[in-house]
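Lab notes, practical 5.
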Amino acid sequence: MGPFSDERVLVTGGAGFIGSHVTEALLEQGAQVIVVDDLSTGSVSNLSHLEGAGGLRMIEANAATLPVAALEGVTMGVHLAARTEVAASIEDPAGTVEANVLGSVHVLEALNKAGARSAVVASSAAVYGEVPIPVAEDGPHRPMSPYGAGKLAVDHFVHYYAHHTDLAVCALRFFNVYGPRQHPRSPYAGVISVFAKAALLGEDLTINGDGGQTRDFVNIADIVKAILIALRTPEARGEPINIGTGHGISIEDLAREMISVAGSPSRVRHGPDRPGDIRHSVAKVDKAESLLGFTPSVPLREGLVTTVEWMRSQQQG
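Output from the prediction step:
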């Protein structure tokens, strides 16, 4: 019997990087889990090690059109399904808003109508844009991309549902998440996985711009911990909450640390700036600690080691 043994949890995007880890943790803590994923970026291979696990059901569908079967008896929800690439959102703003904003409203409405008690929605540090760091939840908010603007809109819908329905939902604003199962096909969100792959192959690590950009990298294990805490914290209702470490590292220093961890002969080179790229992004994390009792526990180098080990196993496999 675990803390979620009486819960039936819907996880949208549950076959993705973050979603598969959340699904795994919920199952370990006794929940029944319904994963809904259209597999546009997620992969069933992320859940293959859970095959045969009691309590898991996978439904291939778009989160915006949740089938009735996905909602039967649902008591909680974790909404992770989204288009996550900043550059792609600049190329297709309308498509990004349709997927991320309208998609989120459809999920929140469905969870509310199904009688779910609580939910967590994935938000992003991209809501802030280029602002003084560390940045607190009250802003300022100056998103530099349709992706960031859309996530900020979703945060407002979270506030609406939290205060005008029976659904206790909050928005967790993830900073730069990394860890095992993050594939290097999304260069912006997955810079650590991109660097890890290059370092293990002995290839140059390419930095967009001068490398002076700073980021707050938070390990997937800490993200999962924050989500599970938030699901069971009614006091978080309606709140946007930063989930990061409160510490930044430059991309140049990150690249050199990755080369060290991987024991690689790779070198660092520089390419053009990326459109919509924020110069500095570091979280102020007081609210997560005071409201959720959450503090991150995985040091960056330790997280890089486990990420490199996972990537090495994938390359060897």
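Observations recorded by the TA: The chain has nine helices and 14 strands. Residues 114 and 256 are 49 Å apart (CA to CA).
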